[in-house]
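Shipment paperwork, digital attachment
Item: protein structure file
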Amino acid sequence: MSLLSPRPAPQLPQLERPIMQHVDEHLLETDIQARFGYLADFIQFSSDDIATIHAAAPALAPLVPGLVDAVYHKLFAYDCTKRHFLIRNAGYAGELPTNLADLTVDHPQIQFRKQHLSGYLVALVTRPYDGSLVRFLDGVGKIHTRSAGTKELFVPLVQMNALMGFVADAFTATIMGLGLPRTQEVATLRAFGKLLWIQNDLIVRHYATPNE
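Attachment content:
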C-alpha cells in the first residue's frame, strides 16, 4: 500500500453557458472576410495578438533570410517538392531550370521565389490585419492550385500541410531563441500559433469541395 495519499484531480474552472451565435455556413464558403472573422473569433485571435505579432517585427525581421533559407533547404531535400520549381512561376520571366539534378538555390527562379517568401513573412509582422491582408493570406493558398497563378503548377495538399508544419515549428524555435521575457514569449508563441492555424485553413479551403 502506498504511504502517499492520492492527489485530488485538478478542478477546471466553471464556465458560464455561452450565448449561442448564429453562423451563416454558406457565407463561410463564399465570403473570405466572414470566414476569417469566424476563425478569429472561434480561436480568439484578437487585437492583442495582432499587436503582439507587430511588436515582434524588430526582433524577427533580421532573422527572415535565415528562415527563408531553412524553408528552401527543406524543400530541396525531397524530389516531390523540388520538382515544382521546374515550372515557371507567375511573374517570373527569366530562364527556367531544366532538371532537378542541376537545380540549385542560386538559380534565378529560386531567388525570385525566395524574395516572395521573404515578402510574405515580412507582411505577417508588419501589415495591418485588414481586408487587404486577409485576401493576401487567402491568395497564398490559391496560388498553389490551378485556380490562380500558373495553371501547370499544382502543389498537393499533403505537401502544403508538411510545409506549414515546418514553418510553424521554425517560428516556434525562432521565437524561443529571442530571449524574450517569459510572459511576452508565451504571448508571442500563442499569437503566431493562432495566426498560422488561420493561414492553414485559408490554404486548405482551396483544396476542399464545400458541403452542400
